[in-house]
Every structure is written in structure tokens, then in C-alpha cells.
TrEMBL record:
It comes from Maritalea porphyrae. Homodimer. Its EC number is 5.3.1.6. This is Ribose-5-phosphate isomerase A. The keyword Isomerase applies. Catalyzes the reversible conversion of ribose-5-phosphate to ribulose 5-phosphate. SUPFAM superfamilies: D-ribose-5-phosphate isomerase (RpiA), lid domain (SSF75445), NagB/RpiA/CoA transferase-like (SSF100950). InterPro entries: NagB/RpiA_transferase-like, Ribose-5P_isomerase, Ribose5P_isomerase_typA_subgr, Ribose5P_isomerase_type_A. It catalyses: aldehydo-D-ribose 5-phosphate = D-ribulose 5-phosphate.
């Protein structure tokens, strides 16, 4: 996806925020543009209180003087704007390509509205071509991997399960100190059943299927930005 399309989606989603709002800040290259646009507004007097979904987004927001808080200080947000790896026609998402899925899901669930920004290449008929990120506890990694593989088998996955590596070749560690298994399903025909099965594995902390969380999406294409769901 071109950086220009990411910017267009991020800019269009700025219409979702109003001065005085409590805003969740997503993670990833598209969300980064949204944070840049928000930072420019803050410099012009826009008031907000924001919760970042990753240390990377927190650092970017601080550099732009965007006021930050936590979900300990406040317990609810007005809106969260975040990217996605896949979105289907029911606005079910796969997220976690950037490794921030746990905090992203906590923040989205604490928000009155979750807004997705992406380009139209992220729209899919069926979820699953993008490997599903599954955040797992380090303890018992081998046992957890085996249980997840069994679920992949039950759900007729067409690909492998891979422990995500960082740029240093070592296992990628999330902000919460967990590992990520990337599960290539190929196609996911029952996201709810898969979600339930994965969450029954004790070592699974969370997975990247976002069900009933995304209320609206701004999706940029070379022809313009199309929307899904309840945009303002
Ligand atoms: O879920 C995410 C991070 O955990 C990202 O929002 C998702 O991977 C999309 O990223 P990008 O905007 O860079 O394509």
C-alpha cells in the first residue's frame, strides 16, 4: 500500500475526532500518519487526552506534545483510530501485523467507537490470507504451540505456524513481554468459533481477530476514500 494512500485514509478519519475527546491511538504505518495529523491539530490548540496502543506510538505522540493518559487514569475513550491487516464486509478484522494486538484490542474495547484506517487492498472476501497473529505467554511455549497447531488442524488451516522473529533474528517480544505465533489459515470461515477455541488455550494471551469492535472504516484507493460502517 502506498504511503500516500495511508495518509489519505488517516486524514479522512480526522473527521471522527473533536476537541475535548479522549482518543485511542493505534499502531502501525497508517496509524502513524493519523498521529501526525492529530499532533498538527494539537499544535493549533486542539484539546484531547490520548491512550497509545504501543510504546512506539507513545514515543511518537510525546514527540508531538499530544497529551497522554492510561486506562488506569480513565476507564473509557470516545474513539480509537487504528490500522488493520484485513477487513471483511462485516468489519471483522485481522490485526497484529505490527505486534501490538493486545493493547490495540484492550484500547478498542474501551472505546465507544473504533475506526479503522487502511487502503482498499486490506478489504477481503474471506479473512485468513494474512497470517493470524496470536500473542502467547513465554512460559510453556512448546505446549502452547502444540495446542494452537491442533486448533489449526481442526479449522483446516492451509499453512504453517511460525514463531515471529524480530529484526535481530531473536523471537519478537511484544510490549507486554510475550511472543507472537503467526498462524497461516489461508481462509477463516468461522471467526467467532476460532476466537473461542484460541482463547481456551491457557498460554494464549490474545489473538488478532477483532470481532464486533470496528464500527467504521476509511479505506483509501487511487480513486478516493471509501467508507464502511457508521462514519460521522
Ligand atoms: O495491527 C497493527 C499493529 O499491531 C497494525 O495496525 C496493522 O498491522 C496495520 O499496519 P499498517 O498500517 O502498517 O499496514
Amino acid at each position: 500500500m502506498s504511503d500516500d494512500l495511508k495518509k489519505q485514509a488517516a486524514k479522512a478519519a480526522m473527521q471522527e475526532v473533536r476537541s475535548g475527546m479522549r482518543i485511542g491511538l493505534g499502531t502501525g504505518s497508517t496509524a502513524k500518519h493519523f498521529v501526525d495529523y492529530l499532533g498538527a491539530e494539537v499544535a493549533n490548540g486542539f484539546e484531547c487526552l490520548c491512550v497509545p496502543t504501543s510504546e512506539a506510538t507513545a514515543a511518537q505522540a510525546r514527540s508531538l506534545n499530544i497529551p497522554l493518559t492510561t486506562l488506569d487514569e480513565i476507564d473509557a475513550l470516545d474513539v480509537t483510530v487504528d490500522g488493520a491487516d484485513e477487513i471483511d464486509s462485516n468489519q471483522v478484522l485481522i490485526k497484529g501485523g505490527g505486534g501490538a494486538l493486545l493493547r490495540e484490542k484492550i484500547v478498542a474495547a474501551a472505546s465507544a467507537k473504533m475506526v479503522v484506517i487502511a487502503d482498499t487492498s486490506k478489504i477481503v472476501d474471506q479473512l485468513g490470507a494474512f497470517p493470524l497473529p496470536i500473542e502467547v505467554n513465554k512460559f510453556g511455549l512448546g505446549a502452547t504451540t502444540n495446542l494452537v497447531k491442533k486448533i489449526m488442524n481442526d479449522f483446516k488451516a492451509q499453512g504453517d505456524l511460525v514463531l515471529r522473529a524480530g529484526s535481530d533474528g531473536q523471537p519478537f517480544e511484544t510490549d507486554g513481554g510475550h511472543f507472537i505465533l503467526d498462524a497461516s489459515f489461508g481462509r477463516i470461515s468461522d471467526a467467532k468459533a476460532l476466537s473461542s477455541a484460541l482463547l481456551e488455550v491457557p498460554g494464549v494471551v490474545q489473538h488478532g481477530l477483532f470481532i464486533n469492535l470496528c464500527a467504521a472504516a476509511y479505506l483509501a484507493s487511487p480513486e478516493g476514500v471509501v467508507t464502511m460502517g457508521e462514519t460521522v
